[in-house]
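Question (not urgent): is this output format expected?
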Amino acid sequence: MSRLHALIAVLATCLAISACTEQQEPVPEPSADISALAARLTALQDRAQRLRDVNDIKRLQRAYGYYLDEALWDDLADLFTANATVEYARDGLYRGRDRIREYFYHLGGNQSGLSEGQLNEHFQLMPVITLAEDGMSAKGRWRAVILNGDLGEYAAWGEGPYENEYAKENGVWKISKVRWYQTIMVPYAGAWGLNEDINKGIYVSPQFPPDEPQTDSYGSWPETFLPPFHFENPVGRYQPAASAGGEGQ
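Got this back:
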């Protein structure tokens, strides 16, 4: 090839490259569809975290029930925040993890673990969990069904709802408030049809005074009392307590 022909080929190549460069379109901005997908992904991640939180709270409350069943008071107290409160039936309010630990020890006769022949079952049922909007606290309503007694001495049925609160500390859910309302605690023989409450909802407060009085006044069976719901009716009917917001499960 002559030098002229080589020069013509180089010029043609440059012109072709220039033409391609001029025709190249700018890189498009992310489409609206991509933005919508990103927003959807964020919403799903938030939803998944809230579901994990609800499951963690349910696991926490169920662990509470098992420790209570076996009178493992130290394990039970460790489930609470440092400034938590406990209020059982009509015993008054006990504040702080250390006082809560003492309260349960008094409740268990100042010993850890069950005695031979002792039964102390507390079923944790019917959970309704409501997360706060920020996902850092929650409220929960549960129902306890109780079977307790000592072989050859006595047997009793008990029942009543919880209105509890929870707090998330360093990614771990803990109990910040236990409020259990005693509906009944009656002898197994004849049950509630023939018996009034055997303890009137008062357990250890005469010997171990509370930090604060009972927060809401109600009587013992056969009197009845409806503890206010922390949540609104999920299909819209009026309830006597304001919603905590967030998500119920």
